[in-house]
Amino acid sequence: MNDLSNLFLGTIAAATALMAFAQIGAMVVAARAARQVQQTLAAVHNEIRPLIAKASAVADEASRTAALASAQVQKIDRLVTDVSRRVDETATIVQQAIVTPARQGVAMLAAVKAGLAALRGIADVRRGSSRSEEEDPLFIG
């Protein structure tokens, strides 16, 4: 039994040595893979860094452009508001300077027309009374 025990013991020792070599090999392969992953990440990081810098510059420029656009929009808004206010003031002044006197002139003209119409009416009434005395209203002929 001693030989059989030594045989099993030798088999166990050989299997354990093979497992140890397999584990060492797996660790070496895992270490190489980890180094490759680390190198790949470093390369990607180095390639992405300029892109991130460019994106940051673009974002900064966009921010400045938006601020300038906002300022210009505010200036245009103030300009339109000022122009609108001045147009309203000008319209009011024109109305006071032209339309109101024109209305008064039209009113005066209407008064003169009414006065002339009244004078014509008086003249027509005088002429009408002399005609009615000359003609017989009951005469059909």
Mind explaining what this structure looks like?
By secondary structure, the protein is mainly alpha-helical. It contains one helix and no strands. The chain has one helix spanning 2-134. The longest helix has 133 residues, at 2-134. It is rod-shaped.
The shape is rod-shaped
Work out the number of β strands.
0
Strand content: under 5%
Strand and helix order: H
Distance between the termini: 176 Å
What low-confidence regions span 5 or more consecutive residues with pLDDT below 50?
A: none
Mean pLDDT: 86
Structural class comes to mainly alpha
Question: Which helices and strands appear, and what pairs or packs with what?
Answer:
Layout: H1 2-134
Quick structural overview:
This protein has 141 residues and is mainly alpha-helical. It has one helix at 2-134. It contains one helix and no strands.
What attributes characterize this protein structure?
141 residues, mainly alpha, 0% strand
